[in-house]
Write a structure and sequence with these properties.
alpha/beta; 12% strand
Length: 348
């Protein structure tokens, strides 16, 4: 069945309504771990592994359960080779993210552009039509992905020519979406949330989006948060702080022997690096684990208090006023957790 190029959808938390007659139910999530039951002894000085990650996932999912019903207009712009099943899954995942963050960000509308590895020229035209910032042409990035991995799993969030929120995402035409890419819609939506507030270092910008993407996208298959470590490990292949060349095991090996000075150096560099250099220090994985700790210990509401604070203040000032720690003090206290996570990630 060929899908229409543009579909205006009203996303609701209880159902997805397309047009005026098609309705598909979004199943209500459960929280098998409870809201904070069993997590009372966690603190920044007692980062039990993997309990901290489970607490972080439970906090995010409890926010989903506690958030009110709502609706938002979303324009889905669908490439000619994107399947109906992929669009349906995208709607479910992004609707959860909308609900979770609605207390802090609820746009009147936003746009989602979906395309496959076969739709590069079409996607380039849509980027030109809607506008937005991206470091390359979409068709060129598709070529890079297919050449390197045989798949197409990238996405990016930006703003249209009019300043409206929009994200673009590539999905494979030849198979159903793998579990690991279920994090993409909430990841990109969280970037739209971030863009309404301040500026962030790479570990917060990409790492926090990676964490929330995993917490929303993986909760149904891994409420304990352990599968997120497999995702983080998969993003760490470019870890190369000394420009020594590719080594898939370098990130995990580095964390195994991590010292406080090492942690301060890595996160300190990620405070100033751009995206490309951030990737060289695995900003997704390091920032994802750091955000997991913040949410696991203090909860999602406290985390968003810090984000909102960046609207009027620097991220460092907002971080310290929210958590009572300087970023450097936080980086030092992360070391035991990062070393414990390395043992888990070494399984993949």
């Amino acid at each position: 069945m060929k899908l229409p190029t543009r579909v205006l959808v009203v996303l609701t938390t209880m159902a997805l309504v397309s047009g005026c007659s098609s309705t598909s139910t979004v199943p209500e999530a459960e929280n098998p771990l409870g809201s904070q039951e069993g997590f009372e002894n966690l603190s920044i000085d007692n980062l039990e592994y993997p309990l901290t990650g489970a607490a972080a996932f439970a906090s995010v999912n409890q926010k989903l359960l506690d958030s009110p019903d709502l609706s938002v207009n979303v324009e889905f712009v669908i490439g000619p080779n994107v399947s109906e099943a992929e669009v349906a899954l995208e709607k479910v995942l992004v609707s959860k993210a909308v609900r979770i963050f609605s207390e802090w960000y609820l746009p009147e509308s936003f746009t989602v552009v979906m395309f496959s590895e076969k739709d590069g020229e079409w996607a380039d035209q849509k980027l030109d039509e809607y506008g937005g910032s991206y470091f390359s042409t979409i068709s060129k990035e598709i070529e890079n992905w297919v050449s390197n991995s045989g798949t197409c799993g990238f996405a990016f969030a930006t703003k249209t020519k009019e300043g409206a929120p929009i994200y673009f995402g590539c999905t494979d035409s030849f198979r159903e979406r793998e579990w690991i890419n279920r994090q993409t819609p909430p990841h990109e939506y969280f970037h739209l949330v971030q863009y309404q507030y301040g500026e962030y270092p790479q570990w917060l910008l990409e790492g926090s989006a990676a964490f929330f993407g995993a917490a929303v996208g993986y909760y149904d298959i891994s409420p304990d948060g352990l599968r997120s470590k497999e995702f983080f490990r998969g993003t760490s292949g470019n870890f190369d702080p000394e420009n020594e060349g590719p080594d898939y095991n370098r990130f995990v090996n580095h964390l195994r022997t991590l010292t406080e000075s090492d942690s301060l150096k890595m996160f300190g560099d990620l405070e100033t690096f751009d995206w490309q250099n951030g990737d060289r220090l695995s900003h997704y994985a390091l920032g994802g684990l750091a955000t997991e700790v913040l949410v696991g210990v203090w909860g999602i509401d406290k985390y968003m208090e810090m984000v909102v604070g960046t609207k009027e203040d620097s991220w460092t000032s907002s971080f310290q006023s929210t958590y009572g720690l300087t970023p450097d003090e936080f980086y030092a206290k992360l070391v035991p957790y990062l070393k414990a996570a390395a043992k888990e990630m070494d399984l993949w």
